[in-house]
Design a protein that fits this description.
The protein is built from 3 helices and 14 strands. It is an alpha+beta fold.
């Protein structure tokens, strides 16, 4: 979005400069300008497609949902819906649903995740809906297994990064841990071959990093941007600092950068895996 804004500012500046120049030149200069016209500035073009299909009606458990629908290549949408108070044991509990073009509704119950220790009502950091799978990104601890294979609560190790995978019918198929030393993942999307596109924070170098990660071979491919990423989130992303306390500049910069990264979103586009 920052790049688009910069392009708009640049374009407007060019138009203003052209108007001022034409107001100062004489007839001879105008004739010379007609003989050798300059190429007009490039203007971004956008296409608008209006669907004529009939709307799909879907019955969800509550009218309260998280703003922003995620669309899939097959025409389905995904939405986080808050459970009504009589169905939520405590606090705000969100459940993710997909709605297909034929009106089929599928819910994804995190209670089926039996290999991660999740708090009751814990939400995923983000999700990704593909053609065959729905993946959820968690910061969590794995369930400690006993010799007989039964779960025995959480381990003492610090939390790791996990991608929990469901199929499109809501059946759970296990979680894979990400091994990305030095990176603090914030967003992820899944390619058709199972590789992950991960948007992570490199805290040591104070910069965002986009990588392609293979869970099977733990191979990492780094992408490097050709433009600076916006490093500050909205005014609401402020540190809860007591009045009169000394402000840690480094901590504030990391917090603002992390807040800005959490506003980003990756999604599938047409027949491409993700972008």
């Amino acid at each position: 979005m920052d790049g688009a804004n910069a392009e708009q500012v640049k374009m407007r500046g060019s138009i203003a400069l052209m108007v001022v120049t034409l107001g100062l030149v004489g007839p001879e200069s105008l004739a010379q300008e007609k003989a050798a016209p300059k190429a007009p500035p490039k203007i971004p073009m956008y296409g608008l497609e209006i669907s004529t299909e009939e709307p799909v009606a879907a019955q969800l458990p509550n009218m309260m949902y998280e703003p922003g629908f995620g669309c899939t290549s097959d025409g389905s949408i995904g939405v986080n819906v808050a459970l009504p108070p009589d169905k939520a044991k405590q606090g705000l509990v969100m459940v993710f649903y997909t709605i297909s073009p034929d009106g089929k509704i599928v819910s994804f119950d995190f209670k089926k995740i039996n290999d991660l220790v999740l708090r009751d009502g814990q939400r995923a950091m983000n999700h990704d809906v593909g053609e065959r799978d729905v993946d959820f990104f968690f910061s969590a601890q794995p369930v400690k297994k006993t010799l007989d294979g039964q779960g025995q609560g959480k381990q003492d190790a610090p939390a790791g990064w996990f991608v929990a995978r469901f199929d499109r019918d809501g059946a759970y198929h296990g979680a894979a841990e990400l091994n990305l030393p030095g990176l603090n993942p914030q967003r992820m999307a899944v390619f058709d071959d199972g590789d992950l596109l991960v948007f992570a924070l490199d805290e040591a170098n104070r910069q965002p990093q986009l990588v392609r990660y293979s869970p099977t071979g733990q191979k990492v491919h780094y992408y490097f941007a050709d433009a600076e990423f916006g490093r500050k989130g909205p005014a609401a992303t402020q540190l809860p600092i007591a009045k009169g306390a000394n402000l840690d500049k480094n901590r504030l910069e990391l917090f603002q950068l992390k807040g800005s990264m959490q506003l980003s979103q990756m999604s599938h586009y047409k027949t491409r895996s993700c972008c």
